Amino acid sequence: MSGKTLTLEKAHGLVVQALVKHRTDPANAALVADALVAAEADGQKGHGLSRLPSYCGQAASGKVDGFATPQVQPAAAAALRVDARHGFAYPAMALAVEKLSELTPTSGVAVAAVFNSHHCGLAGYHVEALARRGLVGLLFANTPQAIAPWGGSRGLFGTNPIAFAVPREKHDPMVIDLSLSKVARGKIMFAKQEGQAIPEGWAVDAAGKPTTDPVAALAGTMLPMGDAKGAALVLMVEILAAVLTGSHFGFEATSFFDAEGEPPSVGQLLLAMAPGPVSGGAFASRLETLLAAILDQEGTRLPGDRRLGLREKAQKEGLALTDQQYEQLQRLAADH
Amino acid sequence: MSGKTLTLEKAHGLVVQALVKHRTDPANAALVADALVAAEADGQKGHGLSRLPSYCGQAASGKVDGFATPQVQPAAAAALRVDARHGFAYPAMALAVEKLSELTPTSGVAVAAVFNSHHCGLAGYHVEALARRGLVGLLFANTPQAIAPWGGSRGLFGTNPIAFAVPREKHDPMVIDLSLSKVARGKIMFAKQEGQAIPEGWAVDAAGKPTTDPVAALAGTMLPMGDAKGAALVLMVEILAAVLTGSHFGFEATSFFDAEGEPPSVGQLLLAMAPGPVSGGAFASRLETLLAAILDQEGTRLPGDRRLGLREKAQKEGLALTDQQYEQLQRLAADH
């Protein structure tokens, strides 16, 4: 097989270079690169390097302000608002993580409402950052319209991920990360990029009919996981991520992909809890008891296990890119 | 049709009387009755009056301590632990709601970890109480084992409800309330009580095979909503409700139904957020924009609409009980 292998450091450098060449501040570019390379290393290609061309396009057109510095607005003793100022989401999310970890030792729980925001990528990335600081993290994010309300036919909500992470004493944090569509929209994007068909049951076309064509699926609506219950969760996340942050709804937000129009201005709600005080000191050992009980049953594994395996492999062996991906990365980094 | 109609007040009085005759403090009995009658009025029979015989049995045997007074333990500035002290969950939950609504004006967000707890009934009931105080409420509760870990075969987790409520300016709060099994376990209990079969797809028997027999289903495991994603949410709720509260896991908890053994000692995690400050003042009007956009599509309705309709009917016309239900209620209230 042809293709090219890049170390994570080399890939990171090229992503930074590409973004900086497309009107992005180097410090912001480094935070975006951290997230894209981490997603790629975790095998989450839909939120990895595949996003770089559209990120560069949006920074170049000004749809994303690559020079924005996110701003913290205190809202209450344990609540803050983070204005992403139409920049990339990652600097705003990193700021939220930092501020939440400053608040929680006193408050036990704290919440950050991120607004004027953009695609936050792999949702698990941000809660994992909280868990690495010893906190339980919960994230609700909204995204441009993709799912119809239950019983309806027109897309209104995004695929609206929920992410959750817990710290473990002798292991990497355990991360749960799921979009509420039957599959992540990124998977359909990736299939489109690769020219592959998608399985039936993932989405319906604009007329509401089943489709295996990723282009038709992206023009139609995604199906929620878990039918009516899943649709209720989609609404819950839309309220938490958009109403409670004062952000655009999925049906108001512009695309995360093209460089046209106003900024999407979606929202993210990030919650952090201090597990020691909240649990009365029981957290660390009880978590291990529960996870051991799961693994005690044949056929089980813990959420994120596959991802951690891929990450370790990528750290040792680097990222395997196709020739096309590698050339695109080089071209973006060389652009001026 | 035969049967008996009771006003909510009359039903409430009989429930209190029944509990008091079965070793329960009158103030605690009133809080339990509030919740059971409210669930019955909302058409949620699995968490309504059908629970009374087993509640009375457990209070009589001492599995539930009807005289327990829940105790608040501050854990951090915006976090508290509520020891239900092996009493009914409702007094502990009511105390948590009260304390959270005292904290949130200062903190913006607050969390209560309820432990040594019991069946909290209709999960939406507690978050609705927060929403009636102007707060956004989120509840995660664990319940005795009913669902196997994904890929496994033995029940480990409960059906682990998530409930969410938001205040509305000119309407009752909107409440989302869902257990993470494909259907609520209470529905299978109710089918068993009524001697009815259940649809296929709700549960598997002890050997892991599909069943329509509610007795076999209760001896087997429930299927999660949304397959692997739903199973991940079940684990998330188990961690939030049991690990983070320091409570028994589903596989450690005794039944909510029979009067045998130790108390179940499950947990509930209740989160409250002040929507005004967190959203920068946008919450109330943006919520109405979103809900109007949903209702603008034919075939849609808001979560809880059916429930609110039944509630209004019950308030006007009373509760329609079968002869059997009515006689049971009378018998329990007359017991000594």
Commentary on this structure:
The structure is a homodimer of 336-residue chains. Chain A is of the alpha+beta class. The first copy, chain A, contains 12 helices and 11 strands. A 7-stranded mixed beta sheet of chain A has the order 2-3-4-10-5-6-7, sandwiched between helices. In chain A, a hairpin with a 2-residue loop joins strand 2 and strand 3. The longest helix of chain A is centred in the first third of the chain and has 19 residues. Chain A starts with a strand and ends with a helix. Chains A, B: One of its GO terms (molecular function) is oxidoreductase activity. Chains A, B: Keywords: Oxidoreductase.
What layout of secondary structure does this protein have?
The structure is a homodimer of 336-residue chains.
Chain A: E1 4-6, H1 8-21, H2 26-41, H3 52-61, E2 71-76, E3 79-83, H4 89-107, E4 109-117, H5 123-132, E5 136-141, E6 162-166, E7 174-178, H6 185-194, E8 203-204, H7 214-219, E9 221-222, H8 227-243, E10 266-273, H9 275-279, H10 283-295, H11 305-317, E11 319-321, H12 323-334
Parallel strand pairs in A: 3-4
Antiparallel strand pairs in A: 1-11, 2-3, 4-10, 5-6, 5-10, 6-7, 8-9
Helix pairs in contact in A: 1-2, 1-3, 1-12, 2-4, 4-5
GO molecular function (chains A, B): oxidoreductase activity
Protein name (chains A, B): Sulfolactate dehydrogenase
Organism (chains A, B): Desulfoferula mesophila
